[in-house]
Amino acid sequence: MIVKSFIASDNTAAITCPECQKTIIKDVSRYAEADNMIKLKAKCPCGHAFTVFLERRRQYRKSTELRGTYLYIPAHSASKSAQHWGSMVVTDISRTGIRMKLNVQPRFQVGEQVTVEFRLDDANNSLIKREVVIQHIKGLDVGATYARAHSYDNIIGFYLLR
């Protein structure tokens, strides 16, 4: 069994045993500056042994497979024909951004804004429509942060908790 734990700002990690659900707070300061993924072996007082991956991200990311669309309107183009839209799949989501996989090579570049629209697979099938700023592009995989805060933050926050 593999468990993921996040390194908090005080260089601690809350590690929850997958067997008994007991959580232990551990000092992980010696791993906080590591460049590579941190994989540890853990043994709970209940006797269950498991593997722990320490994550250094600031925000929790939830893996998803949410289909949606994106619209790119170049900032310096008055022509409607310069607009480009396409299909995408949101592969993970956090309070601050998304990672998406496009169906074609993107026409936008890092630093540009794109409008994304997708529905969460929650009970309300909540519609999320956001302006995002492109942070990185690797082939068809694109990472983006939300351009500004919205009232959707609560919807996404609740979604991340379930």
List keywords for this structure.
mainly beta; 6% helix; 162 residues; 6-stranded antiparallel beta barrel
Structure description:
With 162 residues, the chain is mainly β. It has one helix at 152-161, and strands spanning 2-6, 12-16, 23-27, 38-43, 49-55, 62-72, 84-93, 97-102, 113-119, 127-138, 141-146. The strands form 3 sheets. A 6-stranded antiparallel barrel has the order 6-7-8-11-10-9. The two termini are 20 Å apart. The model has no long low-confidence stretch (mean pLDDT 86).
SSE layout:
Layout: E1 2-6, E2 12-16, E3 23-27, E4 38-43, E5 49-55, E6 62-72, E7 84-93, E8 97-102, E9 113-119, E10 127-138, E11 141-146, H1 152-161
Strand order of the largest sheet: 6-7-8-11-10-9
Instruction: Indicate the percent of residues in helices.
Output: under 10%
Largest beta-sheet details = 6 strands, antiparallel, barrel
Average pLDDT, all residues: 86
